[in-house]
Predict the structure.
Amino acid sequence: MKNKATFLCIVAVLLTVSTSVFAQTPIKKPEKPAKVTTTSHAPSKPLPEPQPAEAELSALDSLKLKAEQGDAEAQNTLGNLYSKGEEVPQDYAEASNWYKKAAEQGNAEAQFNLGACYGQGFGVTQSYTEAAKWYTKASENGNATAQNEMGMLYAYGYGVSQDIEEAKEWWQKAADQGFAKAQYNLGAYYHNNNNNPEARKWWQKAARQGYADAQLLLGDLYYLNGTGVSKNYTEAAKWYLKAAEQGVPKAQFAIGECYFNGYGVTQSYTEAISWITKAAEQGLAPAQYDLGVYSFSGTGTTKSYTEAFKWFSRAAEQGFALAQYNLGVCYENGYGVTKSEEKAVNYYKKAAAQGESNAKMALLRLGQ
């Protein structure tokens, strides 16, 4: 990538039975039926209207009936229907009402759902304090999702006093139950505390469950030679690819760079450009910048100043300094766009303000 263009700053930036028991009793002869006496003048009474059996009710009506009779599981399920707008009009207030009825009976899933309503302000007044209260109840009942959320509340100090060690304890409880998000968070905790072997252990658990963010960071750990973890491009590429296939832009960019350089995979410009383009189209600025560089030089793709200008522009709009500098070069020299020293200077200034040395030198050269 260094030799793509002398005037471009080229930097590749690198989730019952019931058993019938037949009694041994003799079979009795049927008794003679008793005579039925009738009275011709007896008044005839209409038969009562048959009441619909529960089995005749619709599934929704049957669920509502159970919920109204106090069935906690039915109450929580009904809350889910109102929350999602399935079979009934979406109504968060009604959802939170049913969640509360079930939560007060100790239903852990409903306690979590009610906590989520308070956390997001869905159907109730937003309150992290109330969210923490109900998440705690659900957590103490063993709900792994709530335990992970309690970790998040303690990590950021929402509704509770900020305490990263307390957060770690809740993540540990959920992670031990196999909850992938908590395993990811626990890995991040260890990574931030410079314990990469332990981070790798938990990220691997989450990654093997298909959690894309863990797959991405596991790839980074192998690619960047994290302390305590040996560099392994093959492992890095494997995990990048898994996350990329789930649509994670950073992973798409990373596997693209692996293909471009032949790190852990057979070198292929075609695969590289394909993956980098996917990331660029999702708005990842480093991918947009690199795609601009490759288009400018014609490396792995058709040489096109117009395409280069397009991708530099998209990255520059996001404040990516190298793209701003290269966009200045395009305007100064008319690469893919009409020449404009004024616009070139404008982009050089933007890049220079972020410390881009090449842009500073360009401004001095232009007397700015």
User: Anything to note?
Assistant: Confidence is low (pLDDT under 50) at residues 1-43. Residues 21 and 27 are 15 Å apart (CA to CA).
